Amino acid sequence: MLLIPCPWCGPRDEAEYTYGGQAHVPYPQDPASLPDEEWGRYLFHRANPKGPHAERWCHTAGCRRWFNAVRDTATNQLLAVYRAGEPRLAGGEANGRDLFA
Amino acid sequence: MNPRPPGADLPEHPDHLWRDPEPGRSYDVVIVGGGGHGLATAHYLARNHGITDVAVLERGWLAGGNMARNTTIIRSNYLWDESAGIYEHALKLWEGLEEELDYPLLFSQRGVLNLAHSLQDVRDSVRRVEANRLNGVDAEWLDPQQVKEVCPIVEISPDVRYPVLGATYQPRAGIAKHDHVAWGLARSADAAGIDIVQNCEVTGIDVSGGRVTGVRTSRGTIAAGKVALCAAGHSSVLADMAGIPLPLQSHPLQALVSELLEPVHPTVVMSNAVHVYVSQAHKGELVMGAGIDAYTSYTQRGAFHIIERQMAAALELFPIFARAHVLRTWGGIVDVTPDASPIISLTPVKNLYLNCGWGTGGFKATPGAGWVYAHTIAHDTPHPLAAPFTLDRFTTGALVDEHGAAAVAH
């Protein structure tokens, strides 16, 4: 079970959260004008890196707010959390700062 | 009292069934991934197409990934015609595979029950039974009493949290011993002259002028006329080396076994709704699989609360398991596609091929996947049974949606 630090509530068990997949995937501005390849890419392709991954979580059983996290998929270590709407973090920002402090 | 201990009828572990060659400098075909599918592909490249200048490169040890981590269930009762084609082809190959490989696989056609727990489950299941029959796949709809006759330890009381309202039944389905399958295929490929190279991690794919020319590995560069990716959970990582994005998500999937028990479970029972599937291995362990962890991960381990939830559901279905113990749990990485169907395909890079996306259910397809993938590689064109499963369906939208029959909730 992961210990995930909600930006509002602090560290809580993974069971309180819902996973929301890759973060920062914008809806296409004009879907009707997209070629099939690009529309297919928007529908079906999501990042699947072995390493840092920016992803969405919802604190379903807590504050019920969505936020973003950077997690290393090779280790499951959480590298950064930040509120929805904030710019993407690379994951190195947590260096020297305890996410769970 | 049975004087023979569980497992006494199993064959002894073999000594050496294949050589341990140094990787050569070049091959006609390099298969990346020495799991069941990679070994089956090698076997059928030699057997069906006479192509033997082949290396199977395995990052770890032979068949130590998902081939060693799955629950060995074999069935072909999928909904759509395309799926029936490839999975039933695989099941027919299973039925002759022990003779073909001259090796005991402990293939046991003990049948599979897919339980229905809600009215919608019942409707979907009956539809699937009818679809199976139209495709020549053996299938029956059983009411709860008939379920009890096939598998007496299933609780069919209407008062439980997940009442059994019936089940689909495929009598020809079953299980096999996964290690033996890998060893039999590896022995056959090796005997044909194919190099099986373990501890050889592919770190790069060389592409020149839109055509693959070889792979870089932890044991040197290997030139290749054709490169066939066959790496399940790590497919995205490999394809990325050739600049090919894949519509895959890699998730942990867990399974577990109990201690060795007397034979109590005569068949295979699966339940979509409660995320559990159970059989009893030849030695006597109960083998159970869980649902996937929600997030993507390459850690080959899952969260314990998934196991806990799965055990709670299993106990509702099988009260007799209440005093069994979990002996061992483990996880593998499954590569899940948006439509829960595999990808067997040519790629935008010439002579680079793709077999992935089998997600939670690749073991059952092992010989069938190897057969059609070998054909696809040998002829540089999709085998007719693989044609519906090419990469471009995620552009055309011609999906083969098998979420209902894939059994593990995605």
UniProtKB/TrEMBL annotation, chain B:
Principal subcellular localization: cytoplasm
Intracellular or extracellular location(s): Cytoplasm
Q: Which UniProt keywords apply?
A: Cytoplasm, FAD, Flavoprotein, FMN, Nucleotide-binding, Oxidoreductase
Reaction catalysed by this chain?
sarcosine + O2 + H2O = formaldehyde + glycine + H2O2; sarcosine + (6S)-5,6,7,8-tetrahydrofolate + O2 = (6R)-5,10-methylene-5,6,7,8-tetrahydrofolate + glycine + H2O2
The EC code for this enzyme is 1.5.3.24
Gene3D superfamilies for the chain: D-Amino Acid Oxidase, subunit A, domain 2, FAD/NAD(P)-binding domain
Ranges for the Rhodanese domain?
Answer: 29-73
* Pfam families for the chain: DAO (PF01266)
Q: What SUPFAM superfamilies does this protein's entry cite?
A: FAD-linked reductases, C-terminal domain, FAD/NAD(P)-binding domain
The cofactor named in the record is: FMN; FAD
Residues spanning the signal sequence:
none
Family recorded in the similarity comment: Belongs to the SoxB family.
PANTHER family, A to Z: FAD-DEPENDENT OXIDOREDUCTASE DOMAIN-CONTAINING PROTEIN 1, SARCOSINE DEHYDROGENASE-RELATED
Name of the featured protein? Sarcosine oxidase subunit beta
In which organism is this protein found? Streptomyces humicola
